[in-house]
Amino acid sequence: MSEIRMDVDFEHPAERIWRALTEEKLLSQWLELPRFTPVGEAEVTGVEGQRRLAMLWGNDELSTRLVWELTPTPDGATLTLRQSCVYGEWEDEERDEVRAAYGGVLHERLPAILDWLAFQDVDLNAPMPGSPAEPVTEVIPFVAPDKRRRRGRRLVALSTAALLLLGIVVVAALTQTGDEEPAAATQTEDAALPPSAPPPGTTAPGAVAGLGTGAPSPSLSKSPSATPTPSRTPTTAPPKEGTTAPATPVLAAAYETTEQGLLRAGFEGEVTVQNSGQGAAQQWAVIVTLRRGARVTDVSGAQFSQEGSRVTFTGGSLAAAASLTFQFEVSSALGDSGPTSCEVDGKACS
């Protein structure tokens, strides 16, 4: 029978194994068979989610159908390989040679790639498994011993000091009263107002406040009004005649995937930026979000910077009612049809 079937269990999740199967740079590092062309020349014939991948692979004299299937398990996933001839036939020695080659490919080279991918996902700042947890520092408020007793002593001391101060004030007041001379009272009587004039602030008997009693009533004068203080806040000058508000740019963008194929891991994209406003844009920026693991490899017509899956394309001025187009290439997994999002000036691309 001209078919090879192998089942291999891995202690890695199915998503990680799928990356090793569908990213061309990873696939070419571990999948290599004797007498077969480089795996990058294989033709992908079918992809079902992240579960099944089918391809045609062989050489000028032999073509085989190679099917990979992933089945999740409690410890990771099982990778099932089935390979059969489409045209041409294996000799017994050739089939045994290919089967032996799969032993090193699936049990040595592929596990090394998976371990390398797992290391990239490790958070080096996280505590190691089995390591003791960091001690939790509990802040205990300090309570002085005999706090109530000290507080009581403090209150007694304050009360005693208050009583002493009150006594000193009373003694000083009595001493000052006893030392006053009678002449002071006589001098006060001599300086008193005549009986005809009531003391200030009082009203003569039978008189009503504000009416004359023989003595001129004080005149009520209006207080001078306060001079208004000129404001220091400058007033806004009215716009000059004939002037208008400055024109502003209005940016929009449209994205299109220009090239993609199952054989090729990745795609090519094109973005057109248009300024429909009345003013020129001094600069513009288009933000594109790629799928995990995808990288921009080449750009034409713009500058770019990539942080993780977020790619920012920038350019210079764009005049009013003008447009421009730039292209970029992305290396990613097989079946990737384009970015997950695209926006310019906070608006999604069309």
UniProtKB/TrEMBL annotation:
Residues 180-245 are annotated as: Disordered. Keywords: Membrane, Transmembrane, Transmembrane helix. Residues 243-350 form the CBM2 domain. The keyword Signal does not apply. InterPro entries: ASHA1/2-like_C, CBD2, CBM2/CBM3_carb-bd_dom_sf, CBM2_carb-bd_dom_sf, START-like_dom_sf. One of its GO terms (molecular function) is polysaccharide binding. GO terms for biological process: carbohydrate metabolic process. Coiled coil: none annotated. The chain crosses the membrane at residues 155-174. SUPFAM superfamilies: Bet v1-like, Carbohydrate-binding domain. Residues 203-245 have a biased composition (Low complexity). Belongs to the AHA1 family. This is CBM2 domain-containing protein. It comes from Phytohabitans flavus.
